Amino acid sequence: MARKVTKTAKPATSAVVRRLDVAARAALASVGGYAGASLAAALLARILPGPVAEATTAAMLLSFAAYAALAIWSFADPRLLRLVLGFGLGGAALAGALWLSLQVEPRL
Amino acid sequence: MNGSFRQSMAWLHTWSGLLVGWVLFAMFLTGTASYFRPEITRWMEPETGAPASASQAAVGAVAFLQRKAPNAASWTITLPDERQSVARVSWRPEPKAGEPERRGRGGRGRGMDATLDAATGQPVTPRETRGGEFFYRFHFQMHYVPVLYGRWIAGACAMFMLVAIVSGVITHKRIFKDFFTFRPKKAPQRSWLDAHNMTAVLALPFHAMITYTGLVTLMSMYMPWPAMANYQDNQTYFAAAFPRSEEVQRTGTPAALVPLPQVLEQASRTWSGGRPWIVTVNKPGDAAATIEVSRHSGDKLSYRNGSLTFSGVTGELISRTPEMGPAGKTGSVMYGLHLGRFAEPLLRWMYFLCSLAGCAMVATGLVLWTVKRRRQLPDPQRPHFGFRLVEKLNIGTIAGVPAGMAAMLWANRLLPVEMASRSQWEVHAMFIGWGCMIAYACVRPAKQAWVETLSAAALLVGLLPLVNAATTQRNLVSAVQQGDWAMAAFDLTLFALGGLIGFCAWKAARHAPQAPAKRSRLVGEPA
Predict the structure, then answer these.
(1) pTM of the prediction?
(2) Is the Cβ pair A42, B5 closer than 8 Å?
């Protein structure tokens, strides 16, 4: 249904391009989404105030919402490049922040 | 994804739902049945009696364990509640010198466990069956694959489901609005007739809750990274998040064990009426003995309701697990919401019905996929491979999973009691039944396949009460006479479910290929 409308909107888009587009988004949503949610959750577990076990549990509880949001975004954004950059830069920023937070012992 | 936001979400909803729809349907239906796990177990163990009081069962269990394993390192007694007729006990021997002490649920599954009648405390040997436990296990860890893989598969499917729910809500935003707007003349009839929207939107809070909380039940496995960031490993996290009572060492001085009912009563008083559930006796018969009593998981919304540790000699309260923080409580409540153990009978039936609506949502969604595409097929008489695959799997799964589950119950009654690996063959029966339905759907035209597989499923489910009456002492009449409402309701529910599937078969049979578009959607026959 969406497929048909898309085709009429952009007749120049070939089937191969479309398939690659879908494959890239599926990869971003599944692998990228999990990586992003993991990094965010790990970072959250490091920086949330309160007892360590509590922060850890809270981060785990929230992680699936983050994963779902990233998966939705992977298919919502019309521009693939923005997605790739978003995942790449966002992931790098999260990873950097997580690395920094891990240097602080025992915890912030 | 160059269309509008809504179009992208419609696409995502369609494909995320379809890709795992069949596994989801099986997970949903077996999960639905699991709300009656104790009742299914009782039904599948017709050798067991009726529920009795927990303290009566405790006395019997201790007497049994004192005979059977007086020198064990620990005993674990799972007390029956009003839904169970047996107490399950297991014990763990003292570790050999140099061997690390292992904690946990004892020696279950290694010949160091027993099933005791709740009323008499005498061991009962029900037929070898996995009971309701199998549906429960299957719904989150599959079968024929290692448990760990199965759990990852279930988790991935749950994640797809979560994405399908979110994208579905976005897609159907307008219908959602219509739902709260009463416009008798303008409201599109179609949205009310659309079974998928009905079953999905009516129970949407349930579907969203059950999917998210399902992920939460296994979250430390799916998302170990927060624990990894703060702890050495998951075990250390667990020890910190859910502390247990201190380990005790045997002193060598014998001492008589305090009578268990006294301890249970005190535990119940401490919890202002809460029910004791799992009782662990550490170092029974020793002066250092302790009794850990955990609170019933159905006492509160939360699944983890803490435990009390008593002296095994004086019966004094030694310690209690500390209160959990807000996050720990939230997680435990989410876990509890998923299992629904707190639900009293009426609420439990609501759980069951909402969950059935979830099965219907997945099933109608799968059927809609073929219905929408059938009209776009270049030649509806010769659909392409993908279309045929979806159609056959739809028929074979929507009719096949209930048929397979019923086949397992048939096998429970018909396989010889002394048969080797009997419980495994019960389980095989489910997959044989399901597989046969898929195979049958492959060799028959779609319409006939729908009618015939659904009819077979209806018969398999609906005839079970008769099989029960023919093969055991139990039947509907005797259950009513004895006031055993759980078993009476079990038979009645099977009749009702058989009737429901039969109704679907009847609708499929009555469906006329030349009917207007709306009618032909139900079964999806080529026009």
Answers:
(1) 0.90
(2) no
